[in-house]
Amino acid sequence: MDYIYLLLGFIILLYSGDLLVKGGVALASHFKISTLVVGVTVVSFGTSAPELFVSLDAALSGSPDISIGNVVGSNISNIALVLGFTAVLLPLPVRSNSIKFDWPVMMGASLLFYIFALNGKLQTIEGIVFVVLLICFMVWTIWNSRRENRNLSEEAKPAKQSIPVAVLLIAASSLGLYFGANLLVGSAKSIAIDFGVSERVIGLTIVAFGTSVPELATSAVAAYKKEMDISIGNIIGSNIFNILGVLGVTSIIKNIRVSAEIISFDALYMLAVSVLLFLLILPLKKGKLHRWKGILLLASYLFYVYLVFVK
């Protein structure tokens, strides 16, 4: 039954995250908020909501390795698996303006997480720092984009749902995310116990992959339809939110223990994959993430999973 609950948890998280995005976008449209603001706030939160609920539930239920492993594993998965798989389907153009700022922020957030984790835990004050930095990042991104294009307020699209329906979607998706996270974390812990696999391994692989499904599905469908609006910058933005938002909120609510294995190996691999991505997207101007680069990223993900289970 644990496997059924695990699959059910994945499905609930996937559909709940999708409903949250739809409801949030509709609500934002009613209030004449531009598509830029919606993308930076609602959509970013929607695709990272599974990570937030899973990490929070895991931390509160006494499974810190799943909580931290979920975020670290998701960030590795987003870059190596999601971008790699998408680039194999269709080469991705490099949006230089986004990468020049967003990648350094992602790398800075990752390094800051590593520094904070060196003492073996993430504390409330560190969570507050994460959240403040996330707010500053979002405010600066919106302000800078509005400065470059004064007509962004006219981009808001007509809402597909009424305000009551949008509110209902948000409420229903929030409940779905809560119950989906409970099912996923509970079943993952049971499977780990049955197979003698550590919660760290489960969090870094199975749970992390499950919470990355929204990004993977969105990117794969967009590549298939040749909709290039889904770019490398979207994945980088999701990774920024995972560290600053998910770990920030979770550690504010409850201090999280960070295992020595995550500090000495997984976090370093996350940093290495981030550097690899930067090297692969060079040159930033008119560059592309070609298929061979996608294959290299996929290989780095498979190698990571192999190392995690071997160790």
From TrEMBL:
GO terms for cellular component: plasma membrane. The keyword Metal-binding does not apply. GO terms for molecular function: calcium channel activity; calcium, potassium:sodium antiporter activity. GO terms for biological process: intracellular calcium ion homeostasis. It is a multi-pass membrane protein. The chain crosses the membrane at residues 6-28, 35-56, 76-94, 101-118, 124-143, 163-181, 201-224, 236-256, 262-282, 294-310. The keyword Transmembrane helix applies. Residues 3-143, 166-309 form the Sodium/calcium exchanger membrane region domain. It is found in: Membrane. Keywords: Membrane, Transmembrane, Transmembrane helix. NCBIfam families: calcium/sodium antiporter. This is Sodium:calcium antiporter.
